[in-house]
Each structure stands twice: as C-alpha cells, then as structure tokens.
C-alpha cells in the first residue's frame, strides 16, 4: 500500500486524490507543518510493521524512529525507501533505545506478546507488564514530554503501570498518557454500519470503559447516523464489539491477534495526537485516560486532544438502561485491572 499503489487504486475508483488526500479523507491530516518525531516501540512485530508503514505515509511525521529488541534494521531499511516526508531510522536493543526516544513527540508502544486462543488479555500481564515498565522508564528519562500511545495488552493495566512509572520519575502528566482503544471504535463502526445498512464512512460510535471483554462498552444509542435497531440487534452488536479481539485470535488459530486492523487504528489515533499537538481544533477520539468521569481513576471516553495532549475529558452523554447496566457491570473488573497495574510497579 505505497503512495503510488494508493494513487493507482484511487485512479481506478475514478478519484484524482493523492495519497495525502486519501488519508485526509479518512481522518489523517494532509498539510505538513511542524517537525514531529514519532517513535514506534515494538516496530518489528505484527502490529509494529504495518503501523510503521502507515506512520511513514503520514505527512505530519518528519522523523520516524523504529525500535525493537531485534529486526528493526530490516524494517527501517524497507520502510525508508517509501518516498514520503519522514526520515526513518531503525534502532535495535537496549543500548539504542535512548537514541530512538530522544526528541520524540509521540511514542507508540505495540511491544509485547499477543494472545493465543483460550487466553484473556490479562493472561499477558506476566510478560507485558515488565516490558511496558522498562520502556516507560526509558521514556521518563529520554522524552518525558512525549504523548504515549499504549497499545500493549492488557491496556487496562499497562496504562496504570505507565502512570506509576512516570510518577516515580517525577514526570507524570496525565494529559500525555493514552490507552489506545481506537480498534474498539473501528469495530463498532464497521459492525454498526453493516447492521444498520448505512455508509460506514459516515458512522460514529463512542466506545467507553476499558479494553477487555465486558469493559469495552460501545454506546450504540449515540451512534450516528441513527438507525432503528431492535434490542436484540443492539445486544448482538455490543457482544460482537466486546469479543472482536477474540474473534480475530480464534481465526488466526495460534498465530497471534489483530495486527492489521490494529495498525490502522493505531495510525488513526497517533494522527489525532499529532493534529492536536499541531493546534488543529476539535480533534476528538475515544481513549483510555486518567479520568473523573466515573469513580474509576482511568476510563475510556471521548477526549478532546490539543497542544498538550488531553485538553478535555468529555462526559458520557445520556445512556440507555442497557448501557447503564453495562457500565455498572464493567466497573469491578476494570477497577481490579487498574489496581493490578499499580500494585505491580510498587512490587506488591
Ligand atoms: N490495544 C489494542 O487494541 C490491541 C493491542 N494488542 C497488543 O499489542 C501487543 C503486540 O501485538 P503484536 O504486534 O501482534 O505482537 P508481536 O509478537 O507480533 O510483536 C511484538 C513485538 O514486540 C517486540 N518486543 C518485545 N519486547 C520488547 C521490548 N522490551 N522492547 C521493544 N520491543 C519489544 C517483539 O520483539 C515483537 O517484535 C500485544 O500485547 C497485543 O495484545 C493487539 C491488538 C489490539
Ligand atoms: O484481542 C487481543 O488480544 C488483541 C486486542 O486487544 C484486540 O484485538 O482488541
């Protein structure tokens, strides 16, 4: 999906758009302006590679640092041949992590192990908690002002881990830490458009809560364009959105979890962060952040992004009885995942 392939695809579809305007029409900004460095940690992985490709296609990026424990020289050499704005460099191994991070405006973290069939996201905690902790220690040291986009699972725990690490280094700014829940929104939009028989490009659906099972709560009552769906249809759409990750894990049958759709979602969210940093007004995405919207210290909801990251955590809006029940049901699990992350950093 290089720029030229995109251009010929667009020509075939009768459009005269360029790759840049292709992305602009899908929520990617088009006008290069500020110098912006983006680092991808875990760049040689299933998500990392296509995400690196998509970030290379983003005209808002001027420098792209691709870091992994191994394999990044190849990925970086490959991606660097694409004739778009950013300068690409690959970094491999601990001793190159600092250089990869230095000067970063946005750090995207898809480092860590993915699920196999039969596992929950929480089963990844044992391995991924340590990976995320050590990467966040390096972020605290080398680019404490960067916006951190946490993809590594379990997001409900890895985001609190990051917050505690940053606090212990005296650099925690809640406006700069995000759990990436965009894939839940991407799925909710796709599934809703299919059921409601509306143009998927016009669809908006907020998804709140967290990023695991029932903690993922799509608010189909607020979906636009409006459609007259039955309670049974809403229930089925809600369950499918909550189980979307598992649907992919089972289909991949031991070969990992969502990578391509996640790379797309991660690229959309990073682009929103860059737009916010660059002063584009009214950039709103659902994301898992420090929050006072409920009694839980972290919660996913719509967030307005700006020059310092989170500008405003937006409220939940009116909920149906079904959604209120879902909200109450998710709280105990989300609370314990958050507490598990916090306890991990304090050695409990
Ligand atoms: N937030 C979300 O919506 C989603 C999150 N995920 C999560 O993303 C993570 C990555 O998934 P995949 O890319 O499929 O896994 P993968 O195994 O294909 O890639 C992970 C990469 O991380 C690297 N890595 C491991 N330790 C590292 C370290 N200390 N520093 C830098 N890189 C390191 C590995 O070398 C590997 O290249 C998983 O935890 C998965 O559960 C996956 C899909 C959606
Ligand atoms: O399900 C998984 O393990 C990966 C993930 O978070 C998702 O696809 O939403």
UniProtKB/TrEMBL annotation:
Substrate binds at residues 115, 121, 153, 187. CDD domains: MDH_glyoxysomal_mitochondrial. Residues 181-345 form the Lactate/malate dehydrogenase C-terminal domain. Keywords: Mitochondrion, NAD, Oxidoreductase, Transit peptide, Tricarboxylic acid cycle. Residues 37-179 form the Lactate/malate dehydrogenase N-terminal domain. Its EC number is 1.1.1.37. The keyword Cell membrane does not apply. One of its GO terms (biological process) is malate metabolic process. One of its GO terms (molecular function) is L-malate dehydrogenase (NAD+) activity. The active site is at residue 211. InterPro entries: L-lactate/malate_DH, Lactate/malate_DH_C, Lactate/malate_DH_N, Lactate_DH/Glyco_Ohase_4_C, Malate_DH_AS, Malate_DH_type1, NAD(P)-bd_dom_sf. NAD(+) binds at residues 42-48, 68, 128, 151-153, 262. One of its GO terms (cellular component) is mitochondrial matrix. Its main location: mitochondrion. It catalyses: (S)-malate + NAD(+) = oxaloacetate + NADH + H(+). It is found in: Mitochondrion matrix. Homodimer. Belongs to the LDH/MDH superfamily. MDH type 1 family. This is Malate dehydrogenase. It comes from Perilla frutescens var. hirtella (Perilla citriodora).
């Amino acid at each position: 999906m290089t720029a030229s392939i995109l251009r010929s695809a667009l020509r075939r579809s009768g459009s005269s758009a360029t790759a840049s305007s292709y992305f602009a029409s899908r929520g990617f900004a088009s006008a290069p302006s500020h110098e912006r460095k983006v680092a991808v940690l875990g760049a040689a992985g299933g998500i990392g590679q296509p995400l690196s490709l998509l970030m290379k296609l983003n005209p808002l990026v001027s420098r792209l640092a691709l870091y992994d424990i191994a394999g990044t020289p190849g990925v970086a050499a490959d991606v660097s041949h694409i004739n778009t704005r950013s300068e690409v460099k690959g970094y491999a191994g601990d001793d190159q992590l600092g250089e990869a991070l230095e000067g970063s405006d946005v750090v995207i973290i898809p480092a860590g192990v993915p699920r196999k069939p039969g596992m929950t996201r929480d089963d990844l905690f044992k391995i991924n908690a340590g990976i995320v902790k050590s990467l966040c220690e390096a972020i605290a040291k080398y680019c404490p002002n960067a916006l951190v986009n946490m993809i590594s699972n379990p997001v409900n725990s890895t985001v609190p881990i990051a917050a505690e690490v940053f606090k212990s280094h005296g650099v925690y700014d809640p406006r700069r830490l995000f759990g990436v829940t965009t894939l839940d929104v991407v799925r909710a939009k796709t599934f809703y458009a299919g059921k409601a028989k509306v143009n998927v490009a016009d669809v908006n659906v907020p998804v709140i809560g967290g990023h695991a099972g029932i903690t993922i709560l799509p608010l189909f009552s607020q979906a636009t364009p409006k459609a007259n769906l039955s309670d049974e249809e809403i229930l089925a759409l809600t369950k499918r959105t909550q189980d979307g990750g598992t649907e992919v894990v089972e289909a991949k049958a031991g070969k990992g979890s969502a990578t391509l759709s996640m790379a797309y979602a991660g690229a959309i969210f990073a682009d929103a962060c860059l737009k916010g940093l660059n002063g584009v007004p009214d950039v709103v995405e659902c994301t898992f952040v420090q929050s006072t919207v409920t009694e839980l210290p972290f919660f996913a909801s719509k967030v307005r992004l700006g020059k310092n990251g989170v500008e405003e955590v937006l409220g939940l809006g009116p909920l149906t009885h079904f959604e209120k029940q879902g909200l109450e049901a998710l709280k105990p699990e989300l609370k314990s995942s958050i507490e598990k992350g916090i306890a991990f950093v304090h050695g409990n």
